[in-house]
């Protein structure tokens, strides 16, 4: 096995506020890592550094062999290998589902229109939304929008998918459908890093759970072990609150 994501000693501050205080994380190809932790502990900032939406102050990030701090690394190329799904779906409201899906691959010259369209239909099938191809985002439920957002990220054929609280903005009855799509994606071999408060999902499908607090990874491990026998007092406290 080779690590597709290698993070070594990453530090990041916003002004005086040191948010990441030396993060180390290696993720193997095909692995599903769930990140949990209190609000403000740096989870989103960490995910954003992987996609170069944030710069880092110190340390090293290597994604699929590309060292992000190497000035010779083509940032757009590495970014194409990483799909990102956010809490809010960020679909373009004036475009249909199909147009939303075709936009990036066509604009970036990754596919011609016909190919992008064909791929879009395949991916919409995969998330169970082919019949919504011509709908506008405003007519979809939150769960449907999030499934479109996942399908759209897959259009670029990424090697890694990052999810930042993908179900936090959804009504409870929508959460299961989105988690099912994510499970399926993981079963198909996608490498995934998922920030979530869905502890059931973490327990069932994560290969590894990583606990963030105060800018550090305080504990990491196989989910059953980590949930049953948390060692770090901050993790014990956190689990008491969320479970
Ligand atoms: P989490 O996702 O775990 O809730 P975040 O990574 O969003 O945590 O935030 C960690 C800390 O970094 C918080 O104190 C937050 O206010 C701060 N922060 C995040 N983004 C910025 C930014 N762009 N500018 C200044 N501070 C930020
Ligand atoms: Mg966050």
Give me some keywords for this one:
four-stranded antiparallel beta sheet, ATP-binding, 243 residues, six-stranded mixed beta sheet, globular, binds magnesium ion, binds adenosine-5'-diphosphate, alpha/beta, ABC_ATPase_HisP-typ, 9 helices, 10 strands, 26% strand, nucleotide-binding
CA distance, first residue to last residue: 33 Å
Low-confidence stretches: none
Query: What ligand species are in this complex?
Result: adenosine-5'-diphosphate, magnesium ion
**Which term fits the overall shape?**
globular
Describe the model.
It holds the Pfam family ABC_tran. Keywords: ATP-binding, Nucleotide-binding, Transport. One of its GO terms (molecular function) is ABC-type amino acid transporter activity. This is Amino acid ABC transporter ATP-binding protein. This protein is α/β, with parallel strands linked by helices and 243 residues long. It has a domain at 86-157. 37% of the residues lie in helices and 26% in strands. It has nine helices and ten strands. A six-stranded mixed β-sheet has the order 6-7-8-3-9-10, sandwiched between helices. Strands 2-1-4-5 form a four-stranded antiparallel β-sheet, with helices on one face. The chain is globular, with a radius of gyration of 18 Å. The model has no long low-confidence stretch (mean pLDDT 95). Adenosine-5'-diphosphate (ADP) binds next to strand 2 and helix 1.
């Amino acid at each position: 096995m080779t690590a597709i994501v290698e993070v070594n000693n990453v530090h990041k501050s916003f002004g005086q506020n040191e948010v990441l205080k030396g993060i180390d994380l290696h993720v193997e190809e095909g692995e599903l890592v769930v990140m949990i932790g209190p609000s403000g502990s740096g989870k989103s900032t960490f995910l954003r550094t992987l996609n170069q939406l944030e710069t880092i102050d110190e340390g090293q990030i290597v994604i699929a062999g590309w060292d992000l701090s190497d000035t010779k690394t083509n940032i757009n190329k590495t970014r194409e290998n990483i799909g990102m799904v956010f809490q809010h779906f960020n679909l373009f409201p004036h475009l249909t589902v199909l147009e939303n899906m075709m936009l990036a691959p066509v604009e970036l010259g990754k596919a011609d229109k016909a190919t992008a369209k064909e791929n879009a239909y395949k991916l919409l099938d995969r998330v169970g939304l082919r019949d919504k191809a011509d709908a506008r985002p405003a007519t979809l439920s939150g769960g449907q929008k999030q499934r479109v957002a996942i399908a759209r990220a897959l259009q670029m054929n990424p090697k890694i998918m990052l999810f930042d609280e993908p179900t936090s903005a959804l009504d409870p009855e929508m959460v299961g459908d989105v988690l099912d799509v994510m499970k399926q994606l993981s079963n198909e071999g996608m490498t995934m890093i998922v920030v979530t408060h869905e502890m059931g999902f973490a327990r069932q499908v994560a290969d590894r759970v990583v606990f963030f607090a105060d800018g550090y990874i305080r504990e990491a491990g196989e989910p059953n072990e980590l949930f049953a026998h948390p060692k770090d007092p901050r993790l014990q406290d956190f689990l008491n609150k969320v479970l």
